Amino acid sequence: KEELGSPLSRAAKALHEAAAAAHQAASHAAEAWQVFGAPIAAPADVERAAGGADASAGSIAIRAATSADVPAMVAVINEAFMADAFFKVETWYDRTSVPEAEERLQAAGTVFLLAMDSRGQIVGAVCVEWDDSTGHGEFGQLAVANCMQRKGVGQALVKAAEGWCLQQSKGQPYLMQMPLISERHDLFPYYESQGYTRGATVPFAYPAMLNGKYDIKFVMYHKRVGGPAADGRSLGPSGAPPVKPRSPFDDTEAAEALAREDHLLHEEQLRQRLHNRRELEVSYLQYTQVASAVGIASG
């Protein structure tokens, strides 16, 4: 009885754990449906989004992070961003912290998307932001656990980020942008293969992080998401990959047109700010006139 009971007990325990894991997976799939409007966590969908990832990436589910996920998520992000340690001072080796991530998680227009393996472990993350005032999306802190590198997880996260922003834009075409470190040349082809175009180089925003050994800047990459490609196919996250330009001239022309569009957008924002400032000045002038008149009358 004892010899038979022990294996049966272990089998019962294994079945119980499997049932619990299945319940958790179903819960995560429901969360993914709520966030993205479709069960993108389905293995076949993730594999297609990752461009033919191998079987180990086929079981990845993507969902939005909650506060309970933050410590494990931060550990994955900081592990991945040790690749940036060569240009940082040691106190800034960590890319983020639990308090910082929790604060960003609560910010309006911000979501952390997580890649979960079949055991319910976080194996990837990305922070996505949407700016209603500009109609632009941006993502950063894209991280994949070392054990899941080169398996399509990062690409699936990028497509999920694009999909989330497409929901925020209510299906309208929008600009997705992201900053890359100027010395991380190894990353440029990775994003270019997903349709991102190199843009302006701007100063690094956090000079206190730098060890002074490299001239670190941000290289801005951008991509138009949701618009039609040259042959009419969608450039959205669930559509076909973007059609590459037929010539360098076409690529340059598209980049210049995008730059002009952004410039006009910034000009319009500036005009609106000046208009608002003039309204405030007029209101203040009227206020001082009324206050002066009241002061004279009461005197």
UniProtKB/TrEMBL annotation:
**Chain spans, region Disordered:** 229-250
What is a GO molecular function of this protein? Answer: acyltransferase activity, transferring groups other than amino-acyl groups
One Pfam family this sequence matches: Acetyltransf_10
Q: Which domain of life is it from?
A: Eukaryota
The species is Eutreptiella gymnastica
All copies of domain N-acetyltransferase, residue ranges:
60-225
InterPro entries, alphabetized: Acyl_CoA_acyltransferase, GNAT_dom
**This protein's name:** N-acetyltransferase domain-containing protein
